[in-house]
């Protein structure tokens, strides 16, 4: 690969604003789809070691594809929000695949906030009705807003209901949605008034730190799409057995989901479903090899290193192109 920067030239660092400016949500979705169509196999992504430490977890996420390899080092610190800090923080190191020379570092927190909704949006692109307009979002943090923005790129969403444990956070996110021209309302999670919104929703995005199911799965109507991104632990889940058992379930990769996705690990352990219940992974969905069926559709994401790599590569290539234009 020509033009690979050397360490003694100064390794470029792309901060969060730069990453977001270089790769808008729609571009991230397309980069992910292009990689999958180009032959990227999510099942070959190395498993990520998760190390428990007193403050939370350390995650090491390596991947390789095409012209690049890379690794994201992420931290999960549950007490950080009360300190005014992000719960998840990260840095990504991007490497030239041929030489394994570092080419850039970038804000991995921004990368995570960008690629997770983009992965969900790619699944929605294949699973949701073209006229899906109503969205229920569980959670009020960065991922909740990221999913509103990304899903609007894929479907004509004009109504959003925000449900969160923190009434103030739910109200603020609803206000942000309204400021973007959406009809928006909020409910604290303790108020069952939001049940009707779930019953009527075309799209449901679960973006929380919950360890137990957020809502009765029987509320979800046939044809609705539920994306669940909040957990990567085998004992934590956002969806109940009833919903998972009657839904067509798509995952990023079977290997990762059957190890890390409590939404699936728990009902398999309890005998409600088997591993064969999974209808396909994201590559198979993009290739048109998954029948969405007539019932609910569920996309369960745990977050994988290949996604970070693809979006990081898109950011780096956009940065080098822009830099070249200025020279």
UniProtKB/TrEMBL annotation:
Query: Which Pfam family name is an example for this entry?
Result: OCD_Mu_crystall
Q: Which domain of life is it from?
A: Bacteria
| Protein name from the UniProt record | Ornithine cyclodeaminase family protein
């Amino acid at each position: 690969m020509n033009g690979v920067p050397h360490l003694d030239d100064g390794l470029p660092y792309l901060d969060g604003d730069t990453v977001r400016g270089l790769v808008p949500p729609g571009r991230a979705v397309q980069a992910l789809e292009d990689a999958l169509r180009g032959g990227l196999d999510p099942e070959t992504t190395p498993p990520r070691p998760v190390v428990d430490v007193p403050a939370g977890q350390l995650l090491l996420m390596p991947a390789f594809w095409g012209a690049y390899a890379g690794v994201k080092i992420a931290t999960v610190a549950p007490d950080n929000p009360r300190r005014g800090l992000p719960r998840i923080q990260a840095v990504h190191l991007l490497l030239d695949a041929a030489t394994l020379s570092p080419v850039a570092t970038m804000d991995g927190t921004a990368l995570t906030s960008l690629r997770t909704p983009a992965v969900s949006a790619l699944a929605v692109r294949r699973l949701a009705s073209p006229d899906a307009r109503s969205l229920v979002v569980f959670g009020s943090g960065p991922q909740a807003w990221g999913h509103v923005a990304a899903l609007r790129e894929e479907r004509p969403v004009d109504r959003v209901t925000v449900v969160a444990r923190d009434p103030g956070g739910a109200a603020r996110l609803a206000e942000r949605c309204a400021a973007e021209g959406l009809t928006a309302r909020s409910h604290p999670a303790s108020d069952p008034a939001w049940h009707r919104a779930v019953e009527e929703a075309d799209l449901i995005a679960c973006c929380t730190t919950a360890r137990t199911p957020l809502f009765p799965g029987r509320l979800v109507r046939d044809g609705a799409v539920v994306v669940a991104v909040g957990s990567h632990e085998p004992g934590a889940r956002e969806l109940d057995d009833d919903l998972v058992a009657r839904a067509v379930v798509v995952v990023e990769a079977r290997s990762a989901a059957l190890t890390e996705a409590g939404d699936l690990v728990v009902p398999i352990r309890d005998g409600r479903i088997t591993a064969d219940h999974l209808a396909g992974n994201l590559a198979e969905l993009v290739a048109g090899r998954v029948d969405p069926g007539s019932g609910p559709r569920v996309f369960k994401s745990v977050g994988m290193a290949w996604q970070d790599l693809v979006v990081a590569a898109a950011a780096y290539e956009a940065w080098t192109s822009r830099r070249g234009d200025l020279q």
